[in-house]
Amino acid sequence: MTQIGRRGEDEVVETNKQIRTTAATSTPSKTFSSLGVEPSLVAALKAMSITSPSEIQERAIPDILAGRDCIGSSHTGSGKTIAFAIPILQSLSKDPAAGFCLILTPTRELAFQIGSQFKALGSIAVPGFTHSVIVGGMDMISQAIELNQRPHIIIATPGRLVDHLRSTEGEVGKWNLKRCKFLVLDEADRMLTSTFSEPLAYLINEQLPPPSERQTLLFTATVTEPVMGLAQKTHPGKPKAAVHLCGPAQINLPTALKQFYSFIPSQVKDVYLYYLLINLCNLTGLSLPPKPKPSTSQSQNYRKKPVKYSNRAKRLIGEDEEDDPILNLPQTIIFVSRPRTAESIHLMLESSQLPYQIPSRCLHSNQSQNKRLESIREFEERKVRVLVSTELGSRGLDLKQVKAVINWDLPLDPNEYVHRVGRTARKSRTGGDEDGISISFVCERDLKVVLRIEERIGMKLEEIKLEEEKVLEFLNPIKKADREAQLELDEMKFGEKQRINKLKYSKKQKLLKD
């Protein structure tokens, strides 16, 4: 698996066409039972309000149940985790002691999310079901204890798993990967990059059983050459992997997603962002989210204190509760490129300098793992309506009811754009498509990036124009709020610890080379 075949783009596209043609001729099943899923798991799915299989589930589940290796691709939010979780749990339920499943993910947050889904299903389907999430930022001793208890499912980031294996190397009777029955690479396009090549090679070449003795499953929303290269590999005694590419070749965007862009001067991006947030539904036509009941504790979390409107704000957002921009704000993720940007936008939106504060949370690599999980949980529970995130939030996270994605910074890699905007317009549990929008801020130097994105997704983004005169009504309070945020970050020496660690690592690497 570590020697990935490289082929020309034309050959990849042609292979995709051949595979897609074969898949299109099959008659899709309509129920999980007709796919061969056992009643206990069907009941577990029903308890999670999942009543009918999505396209990727219809295609992948029968092949995985039959013991075939499988490569599956479909747009974000289409139920890829369920597509491999159900057949794995069904197999383990028949013989829980036969082996275990290892799922590798690129991010800690995705590992925890997959763990929660397996827990919900496995506790019903597998007697004495256990699982363990092995990621960085958590206590290694407690993780080692969990691993030595031989859980049925291990969900891990490659680096932390390698740390555990190397720390016990040579010790007799310690936990290892030799009994691994299933290997799953989730977000496979990212797993098969240079970032994970070293730990992945160590795990596959030195620790895991050979391909002929395990079932290997790859799932992704983005088809890349390395992924398609694996589709062509064969192993003695095993058929070629079943490949299921659902949706338009190599695009895989939600069908209900509307994609916009807005030309914005870089020096006033923050002002435009604020105006956009308090007018999001009116500007985009999004349906309003259900209003929380005033008596609930949840509704009290939308703001820290009562708001006093300025005269200018009254003219734009009104005084009536029906015009309350927070209660009318859908669940929104703002994507940025740097941790400091995420933190500063979060602080700015909550500043008392603003005519209307917008409670938010942020998600970035400078946070502790517990803080990251807390931010995700509060956003999921709708205690806040806005999550400001770096790329940590773009991969695999299934955050319900996200209606809008705003790209504060455009990603240089068009594939990352696909993953970002895929956080919205996701498949509902009853099988229908939720509506959702994405809005990308385009500044003076972003034209080439936009063209690459449009080429990647095969369509033009639609322009949304914001009225400059109305936007600039908020210029002074926003700039005051931003200055306060920057001062607060400077006072707390934000990012200093990470900068020092980076310097230490660079010096260590230089010494090793010398």
From TrEMBL:
Source organism per UniProt: Phakopsora pachyrhizi
Domain of life (superkingdom): Eukaryota
Family: Belongs to the DEAD box helicase family.
InterPro entries: DEAD/DEAH_box_helicase_dom (IPR011545), DEAD_box_RNA_helicase (IPR050079), Helicase_ATP-bd (IPR014001), Helicase_C-like (IPR001650), P-loop_NTPase (IPR027417), RNA-helicase_DEAD-box_CS (IPR000629), RNA_helicase_DEAD_Q_motif (IPR014014)
GO biological process: gene expression; ribosome biogenesis
CC annotations in GO: cytosol; nucleus
Residue ranges constituting the Helicase C-terminal domain according to the UniProt record: 321-472
Keywords on record: ATP-binding, Helicase, Hydrolase, Nucleotide-binding, Nucleus, Ribosome biogenesis, RNA-binding
Name of the protein in its database record: P-loop containing nucleoside triphosphate hydrolase protein
Motif position, Q motif: 30-58
GO MF term set: ATP binding; hydrolase activity; RNA binding; RNA helicase activity
Localization in the cell: Nucleus
Domain DEAD-box RNA helicase Q: 30-58
The Helicase ATP-binding domain, residue ranges: 61-241
